[in-house]
Amino acid sequence: ILIGVSRTSKTPTSIYLANKGFKVANIPLVANTHLPEELFGFKKPIIIGLIKDPRSLMQVRQTRLKMMGENNQTSYDDISHIKFEITQARLIFTKYAWPSIDVSRRSVEETSASVIFDGAPEVFAQGTGSASGLMTGSVFLGSTTGSGIELHGGSAYIRSIGYDGFADTIS
């Protein structure tokens, strides 16, 4: 489970790892909100925090806002607020003894390698068979029939069910 503030490459890293055969989820840290209770219900999850240099994060967020046509400065791209978010994230990671990775100057591939090897290599090495730590079945995340996300390990794909936008891109 990758956890971090907005724009710390949680989703691209999750997709990259899923394509390598790992079961991955990501959870955004949002200021002044609680962590989801479900996060603490897993048996031996591997939870890794992602952080980024505040100035670099500010630039990424400003670029995102411009691409979305938003010209007003908000707390989303305010350096003081970003520093607060990063500080809060570090406190959470420390409180729960979750390792963290600074993604400031890392590619998605480098971050993924750190998740696999630096994050908790002993967990990925445990299990049965050669596919230990790899996704070998299907997992469905959703609340209603016909909508949600399916993760499948046979060919390591992610599919959104009930969203026609992926129909032409996944075969």
Please describe what this structure looks like.
The protein has 171 residues and is of the alpha/beta class. Helix 1 links the parallel strand 1 and strand 2. The strands form two sheets. Strands 2-1-3-4 form a four-stranded parallel sheet, sandwiched between helices. Strands 5-6-7 form a three-stranded antiparallel sheet, covered by helices on one side. Helix 1 packs across helix 4 and helix 2 crosses helix 3. The chain is 34% helix and 18% strand. The radius of gyration is 17 Å and the shape is globular.
Number of H/I helices: 5
Largest sheet: 4 strands, parallel
What order do the strands of the largest sheet run in, or round the barrel if closed? Answer: 2-1-3-4
Q: Note the run of SSEs as H and E.
A: EHEEHHEHHEEE
Amino- and carboxy-terminal Cα gap: 27 Å
Approximate helicity band: 25-40%
What is the 3D shape? globular
- Measured on Cα atoms, how large is the radius of gyration? 17 Å
Note poorly predicted spans: 120-148, 150-171
Average pLDDT rating: 77
Number of strands: 7
Range of strand content:
15-25%
- Strand-pairing-aware structural class: alpha/beta
